[in-house]
From TrEMBL:
Metabolic or biological pathway, per its Swiss-Prot or TrEMBL entry: Amino-acid biosynthesis; L-methionine biosynthesis via de novo pathway; O-acetyl-L-homoserine from L-homoserine: step 1/1
Annotated protein name in UniProt: Homoserine O-acetyltransferase
Species for this entry: Caecibacteroides pullorum
Keywords: Acyltransferase, Amino-acid biosynthesis, Cytoplasm, Methionine biosynthesis, Transferase
InterPro entries: Class_I_gatase-like, HST_MetA, MetA_family
Active site as annotated: C142 (acyl-thioester intermediate), H235 (proton acceptor), E237
UniProt lineage: Bacteria, Pseudomonadati, Bacteroidota, Bacteroidia, Bacteroidales
Sites annotated Important for acyl-CoA specificity: E111
HAMAP family the UniProt entry points to: MetA_acyltransf
Compartment list: Cytoplasm
Amino acid sequence: MPLNLPDKLPAIELLKRENIFVIDNSRATRQDIRPLKIVILNLMPLKITTETDLVRLLSNTPLQIEISFMKIKSHTPKNTPIEHMKAFYTDFELMRNEKYDGMIITGAPVEQMDFEEVGYWNEITEIFDWARTHVTSTLYICWAAQAGLYHHYGVAKYPLEKKMFGIFEHHTLQPLHPIFRGFDDVFYVPHSRHTEVRREDILKVKELTLLSESDESGVYMVMARGGREFFVTGHSEYSPLTLDTEYRRDLGKGLPIDMPKNYYRDNDPEKGVLVRWRGHANLLFTNWLNYFVYQETPYNINEIGE
């Protein structure tokens, strides 16, 4: 089934070129079906890029999905046209009475700040709390995962000596868990972060279940509330060239940056990227939608949280 996206969203044309079936609101309203309502709180600086990355992964399912984009009022993006934000994003205040089957909260370029120093901390923690009563399952990514673990469970984050940057090998701790349906014993995930949460802190909190980790990049996936919350520290949604763009950007600015690990063929940027995480990324989002959104959400969406 297709994705139901806001009319004229740039991702529609970009993904049609990849033969991904998407429809806009005008056409979707003629289909007699209860779509899954997914809301995305996009905190990344390049909104259109992140929209496209997430929509690409959400499309890999037979379910019809209606996607909405949320924004916070206390922060104005600098890298996305204001016209785009006005056309496709809605303030949380105008969405707070809605219910959603699923929610995705992205990373943000604020990880080296203390949580309470982030200008929109009060608003985003209000959204975290709101999601518990208005959303069936919430997927927190990268900085949002750290922020959610801190806000809900008091789990600290720690600065890394060097940026965790590259593609890292991971394994599951509960291979029969539904979120890992179809996963290989070893799978790969992109990471790009300066901070971490630690295994020992996760294990101290009885409400948290550590599901996956990496010998090199540490904690990867944590679950809470029986799958109502997933905290994912990596960027499975990244497109093939995202780390390359970050690497060349930082080199151009003269910033201290190592080549992303396990990313380029033969560790040579001129030979291009070896993509090893696409299959895992598709499975992750498909399994989340199927087992923790579609199979858990009530048919009457207004019953969520009751």
